[in-house]
Design a protein that fits this description.
The chain contains seven helices and no strands. By secondary structure, it is mostly helical.
């Protein structure tokens, strides 16, 4: 009876911290949406709003980390449960880093505006990649909520498309700078901005890998897609 009681307490703690992770994910998603809007409209005001959210994201990450530490200290979880808590911690860290990338996009947008080159650069082409990255994060959060390994595998495949989108944009941007050297400084800001978008996709991919780790106990980092699909079955 006592074991059942302890198990119920652990489940309650786990549900609470999982909910907090999804709340953090929702906050980070709002950052990304606003960052994409700031990029699309070259809005300094919206960029400021994105950066204003960053302290809340950082605070939530620290709160979740403290909750996880408390659960480990009080509940003394088994190896399987400890694996779950570790994956949740890593997921939280990746969400915080997504928030960092959104804030970086906002800073780059403001830098481009200050340089007076906002309408001279092919920033509109980044919207496709930015929307793709935001979609990957949304899918990763949905998959995390359901511990859905099939969706996790799909996310890993889609991240390859985002990487190719980034590579194509870099080639176009290099050509653009060669044709008009006066835009090199602002173009470099745009390049860093593109890299931030690509990194959002990488963090969504990391979360997908943690989902497979939670459910199957398999570490699929640095694995081929065939190995990932086999592990996720």
């Amino acid at each position: 009876m006592a074991d059942k009681h302890l198990s119920s307490q652990f489940d309650s703690d786990l549900n609470h911290v999982s909910t907090r992770v999804l709340e953090l994910g929702g906050l980070v998603e709002s950052q990304i949406r606003q960052a994409i809007h700031a990029l699309s409209e070259f809005s300094a005001e919206v960029a400021d709003q994105v950066q204003a959210i960053e302290p809340r994201v950082n605070a939530m990450e620290m709160e979740i980390d403290r909750e996880l530490s408390t659960i480990i200290a009080r509940r003394q979880p088994t190896a399987v449960d400890l694996r779950l808590l570790l994956a949740i911690s890593k997921t939280t860290a990746n969400l915080e880093r997504v928030g960092d990338e959104a804030a970086k996009i906002a800073r780059m947008v403001k830098s481009i505006i200050d340089a007076g080159a906002a309408r001279k650069l092919p920033a509109g082409e980044l919207r496709v990649a930015a929307d793709m990255a935001a979609s990957l994060l949304r899918q990763a959060l949905d998959a995390f909520a359901r511990l859905d390994t099939a969706s996790a595998v799909s996310i890993l495949k889609e991240d390859d498309f985002l990487d190719r989108e980034f590579d194509g944009f870099v080639r176009k941007l290099i050509t653009y700078m060669m044709e008009d050297p006066r835009t090199i400084s602002a173009s470099l800001d745009l390049l860093f901005l593109a890299k931030a978008i690509e990194r959002i996709g990488d963090h969504a991919k990391n979360i997908a890998e943690f989902i497979i780790y939670i459910v199957k106990g398999a570490d699929v980092r640095h694995s081929t897609m065939d190995q990932v699909e086999h592990a996720a079955r």
